[in-house]
Design a protein that fits this description.
Layout: H1 2-5, H2 7-25, H3 40-48, H4 63-69
């Protein structure tokens, strides 16, 4: 009967212990990638390609034109 009166405290304690156990047993996965997994041709092609550049030239709207759009 006494445990039914303190069910909230039991739940909070169980949640706390579960959280602590989760963090205590967790580990960071280690992923190793071999250097040979990326083909050399792909690396050379990526290094030699030029980046596309887009230039937008337009006049800015004045305050009156902005107000007219609203």
């Amino acid at each position: 009967m006494n445990i039914l009166k303190n069910m909230e405290a039991v739940f909070v304690a169980a949640a706390f212990l579960t959280t602590v156990a989760t963090y205590a047993t967790a580990s960071t996965p280690v992923i190793e990638v071999a250097a040979a997994s990326v083909p050399q041709a792909a690396m050379v092609a990526a290094a030699d390609s030029k980046m596309q550049v887009i230039t937008v030239s337009a006049k800015r709207l004045s305050a009156a034109e902005k107000a007219a759009l609203i």
